[in-house]
């Protein structure tokens, strides 16, 4: 067990204890949102960071999840069985939709794929708005949930559980043979083909997995609000995922979680500051500035930038220690250290 | 001898210009055939047609008597045609080791394994290390491919091809861009494959000494067409080849 | 008199250290040929002179002025014309428009050059209003040379004009380069040795990103061992 | 019959407005390979600044002038300070221009308040003509007229002038243009500013057409323009014009006859085009790998 695993375990234990240490309702809700959107951003990062696909329609999977639970809870009964039914429905629907979208579009160049997914997500949005008899359009629907989920602390812990599971899953997944092929596709698609891999299949599978996990995040999101309206299909949701991923660090496991925390926290505290000075009512400005600053000064995201610092520092240490000539014990130890370090931020 | 790879009248044109025109070529099993010719003669295009990167405008490509003309590179690789690229074509942000391991993984048929950790694939890891040491890159296993020197990337390129362990190896100027000192090592590797394994090798190369030294047979291409095909000594004696490629210099100097 | 002096240049493309000490000189009114195997760095050398792959160290002086840090368009405006590998014709523009892009000034000299290339390449005159994309390989090559020339250049950098062309066309292109020789200095990258040796005055051999040999073309014709060693031809 | 004519005119006018946005976007994309999500902000600022000046001075002409000036000014700042550092990287472009879009969109609220701004039709252009039962609103004709004028001007600029020649050549191969001694950076900036000015113009034209302007329309119209660019084909001005009119007219008919799906029409159109002709109606750039 290496340092990074220990650090993560400590962090998770801390987070489990948090609701018992402090009792601010709003902090709890904020943390829950961070967890849920963190999962959503991680699913997005699988496409953007690990496979090199830019999607502008990720909200559609999030929305499918949110509406599945909302509609089933409202029109059937808020029981555990139906809850489970909603989860299964979400997984099946997102799998089908992501499979079809992938089939149609993954052969296109990046920005065309982006626009295509954007259009399809747009269709979902319009459908949700226009099918008023079912969705009540933009007014949205409120719904009841099984009592168990109503408890804020329990729901907080469940969301945390989802996040941890997703993290472990992605950590495993990206280190697996399959995950490595995805990263190779990101690097050089043609070459992957000539190694005997069916690139298209890999992309579709990545798209499906990403879509299904985004759907799960959508369920949690809707449950946390006990309300769902058309905004879950909006482009802003996709853009949020994009921003969180980029701010945290594209292609790193922990990046999207950190990104989610930063974005949510910034939104929360900036909105709070509105009471202090009117300029903070326009907190979106500061938000936009953050985007610009991140792109200018942290082009590989926060985790990515920190990673580079570490590697550079490590290299310097290495350079000083490394004797000329043959590879010494010491340098191989340093190499190993570097690997651990890589593991620390990479998974 | 058995023919393993064959082209029947393949032609490839780009915007009306025929890069490869009407080439019929037979390569026997376990032979090392070099393809020579001036730049722009269509050698790399021919490779692309064999490995599936390009589809011919006309003609057929056969592997062990089976039509593979319409197959994608993926399937041709699986059927046993592996290639290295003239322009270095590795995965820059993966380590050397990971680069090679991807090739081993493909060869071992581990395609869709999503959840087992790589450390549980000892065989794959071992094989990858083995191949890396064959091309003298084992000390660079954990370096990112983009941080390698140009010559080392060429070696990595060859390592990936070796790791695929295909029946047919297409080597596109394996030593291009390598320093003079590195060339003999790579030659040694190619020789080894030729001697110890049952592999068919197609080689594009400009260094005539190397070509003469290694080849069982030589094919000369000129302006997209096949000019001559035969044993090295036949080719060297062929007058047409001399005027077209070797430059008529023999005539002048003799 | 040397018009272009390249001294010990190093160039990286991304992480790759492509040029590691290339030096050569091109004299006024001569054809200087850069030879070498694939991947030796010939194309990169021309691109470095044009500022398309900026050098990391070393100097490039043109008409005794250092140009290695200048932007590509300024280098071109100093009087260097570039005929890239694969011609890079603007395929959606007509032949005339391709030339017009390069004719920046409306002076007499430009007009003269324009008329000259149409005389030199009668094909182009016939095809003046045809889109560049529809030209044959040879015609594209001619257009590419003509385009660089009408740009009022004193030095032409030509990258492998024979590549992919039929021998008879290659001859035509070579003749036209010979014809231009007294009007403009030429640096030629060429792998077709017959061609290179028939029009070149001086040669430089590049290997592994370094210039390793140079001399009069006549000497190379006689030195079989040298050709074998670096060019892979005997 | 009169309904059809009215709907067509309405669609044409909307199409022209979208075209003004899309033309700049398509050139910027084709020439500079830049995905500019802040293009809608120029439009937004053109609308607000133009209408504000118009209401203050009661001169529509001054309003138009102000809109174009603010477009040029913001275009210059955007290109120099936001886009310049991110050439060649699509993801960073998307992110940073979205950031700029958010900032500029919110700044509109800071300057003019968060509520919608009412835009009156200038007296000379208000009212309508009636021909045998067909009602033609003057302002719509005016918008069509201006759009047409800009379109023709742009075509003239691209096809008949030296600058246009350089721009077209640059879209095909910018490195070669540099090697012929042309400062492509200046050309980029010029094209960007031209696109920005057209976006500003579209903004002020839209005001009296819809009666109100609001801050969210920046992103809204920006995305609409993107859809049009994709449909028309990246880098093609004529393609954008055709696509914009198509989107405008289809949208206008759909909202009359099939109001329920009218919102989806653009998306559907884009999907169909992408499936059957991924490079767009008149696009030249490769869309399929």
TrEMBL record, chain A:
Superkingdom to which the source organism belongs: Bacteria
Subcellular localization, as worded in the UniProt entry: Cell membrane
InterPro entries: ABC_transp_permease, LivM-like, MFS_trans_sf
TM annotation in the entry: 6-21, 28-47, 53-73, 80-102, 108-128, 153-170, 204-229, 241-263, 283-306
Membrane in keyword set: yes
Keyword Ion transport found: no
Record's keyword terms, sorted: Cell membrane, Membrane, Transmembrane, Transmembrane helix
Membrane-topology annotation of the record: Multi-pass membrane protein
Protein name: Branched-chain amino acid ABC transporter permease
Phylogenetic placement of the source organism: Bacteria, Bacillati, Bacillota, Bacilli, Bacillales
From TrEMBL, chain B:
Domain ABC transporter: 5-248
UniProt keyword terms in alphabetical order: ATP-binding, Nucleotide-binding, Transport
SUPFAM superfamilies linked: P-loop containing nucleoside triphosphate hydrolases (SSF52540)
Key word ATP-binding present: yes
SMART domains the record matches: AAA
Gene Ontology MF annotations: ATP binding
InterPro entries on file: AAA+_ATPase, ABC_AA/LPS_Transport, ABC_transporter-like_ATP-bd, ABC_transporter-like_CS, BCA_ABC_TP_C, P-loop_NTPase
Name of the protein this chain belongs to: ABC transporter ATP-binding protein
TrEMBL record, chain C:
Keyword Metal-binding: no
UniProt keyword list: Amino-acid transport, ATP-binding, Nucleotide-binding, Transport
Domain ABC transporter, first and last residues per copy: 4-233
GO molecular function per UniProt: ATP binding
Keyword Transcription: no
Family under the similarity heading: Belongs to the ABC transporter superfamily.
Name of this protein: ABC transporter ATP-binding protein
From TrEMBL, chain D:
Localization in the cell: Cell membrane
InterPro entries, alphabetized: ABC_transp_permease, BCAA_transport_permease
UniProt entry keywords in alphabetical sequence: Amino-acid transport, Cell membrane, Membrane, Transmembrane, Transmembrane helix, Transport
Topological relation to the membrane, as annotated: Multi-pass membrane protein
Signal peptide feature range: none
Membrane-spanning segments: 12-30, 37-54, 60-78, 132-158, 187-209, 221-250, 257-276
Family named by the database record: Belongs to the binding-protein-dependent transport system permease family. LivHM subfamily.
Family matches, as PANTHER family: ABC TRANSPORTER ATP-BINDING PROTEIN, BRANCHED-CHAIN AMINO ACID TRANSPORT SYSTEM PERMEASE PROTEIN LIVH
Name used for this protein in its record: Branched-chain amino acid ABC transporter permease
Native source species: Chengkuizengella axinellae
